[in-house]
């Protein structure tokens, strides 16, 4: 579907620059949702946002820097939803309910999962150390409320244990997502009965992994 393109003039005021920055992020998000990560390049983002590729560099150092900003928005949104689910489980230590909450909330965040799945292999390349440091700090700040809520739901866990546990859960999701959402040709192959054991449902996989991890940490 053809989109109405905005005719931008050079941004001079802070609010104009912020508007331009937001337009770039929205363009990247739309392309990512529609076409996937591989098709979300700087040229495509520039066309979608209605600005020149050269102008993008006024706001972001690379495509990967844009995607890191998108990931921060996504993790912040997901963490608050997960936190609200965990608040209902405060003090219960209910591993099954906590695992279900994690699986259900993260499975609904396709953009978050797609980005976190490419973090180490794509997003953290072609960016400078200052960008990576800022990203890591903001990521930790974004998940902090969820860490606190996880520790409250699991009273036996220290803050450090809750933090490590959530990090492992997110890492597991980043690895499982691409395997649970393979390329079309792989999906066709996995439809064959002989490969039934290799077909994975993301939400179920995350629920089972979370339950196993939490029980293992409780017993350690």
General description of the model:
This protein folds into two domains: 48 residues, Homeodomain-like (Arc Repressor Mutant, subunit A, Orthogonal Bundle); 157 residues, Tetracycline Repressor, domain 2. It contains eleven helices and no strands.
Helical/strand content category: mainly alpha
- Annotated CATH architecture of the largest domain: Orthogonal Bundle
Strand content: under 5%
Work out the number of β strands: 0
By CATH, the superfamily of the largest domain comes out as Tetracycline Repressor, domain 2
Largest sheet: none
Which stretches are low in confidence, meaning pLDDT under 50 for 5 or more residues running? 1-8
CATH secondary-structure class of the largest domain = Mainly Alpha
Question: Secondary structure elements and their pairing?
Answer:
Blueprint: H1 14-35, H2 42-49, H3 53-56, H4 63-87, H5 95-107, H6 110-117, H7 119-123, H8 129-153, H9 159-180, H10 184-190, H11 202-219
Helix pairs in contact: 1-2, 1-4, 4-5, 4-6, 4-8, 5-11, 6-9, 8-9, 9-11
Summarize the structure.
The chain is built from 11 helices and no strands. With about 220 residues, it is mainly α.
List keywords for this structure.
Tetracycline Repressor, domain 2; 11 helices; Arc Repressor Mutant, subunit A; mainly alpha; 220 residues; 2 domains; globular
């Amino acid at each position: 579907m053809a989109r109405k393109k905005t005719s931008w003039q050079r941004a001079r005021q802070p609010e104009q620059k912020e508007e331009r920055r937001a337009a770039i992020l929205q363009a990247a998000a739309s392309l990512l949702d529609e076409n996937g990560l591989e098709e979300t390049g700087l040229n495509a983002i520039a066309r979608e946002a209605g600005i020149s590729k050269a102008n993008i560099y006024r706001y972001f150092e690379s495509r990967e820097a844009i995607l890191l900003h998108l990931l921060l928005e996504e993790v912040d949104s997901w963490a608050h939803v997960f936190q609200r689910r965990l608040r209902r489980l405060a003090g219960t230590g209910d591993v099954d309910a906590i695992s279900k909450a994690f699986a259900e909330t993260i499975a609904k965040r396709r953009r978050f999962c797609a980005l976190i799945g490419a973090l180490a292999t794509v997003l953290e390349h072609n960016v400078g150390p200052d960008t990576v440091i800022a990203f890591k700090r903001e990521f930790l700040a974004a998940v902090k409320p969820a860490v606190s809520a996880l520790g409250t739901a699991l009273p036996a866990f220290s803050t450090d244990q809750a933090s490590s546990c959530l990090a492992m859960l997110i890492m597991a999701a980043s690895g499982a997502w691409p395997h649970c959402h393979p390329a079309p040709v792989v999906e066709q192959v996995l439809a064959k009965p002989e490969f039934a054991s290799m077909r994975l449902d993301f939400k179920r996989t995350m629920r089972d992994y979370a339950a196993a991890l939490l029980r293992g940490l409780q017993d350690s």
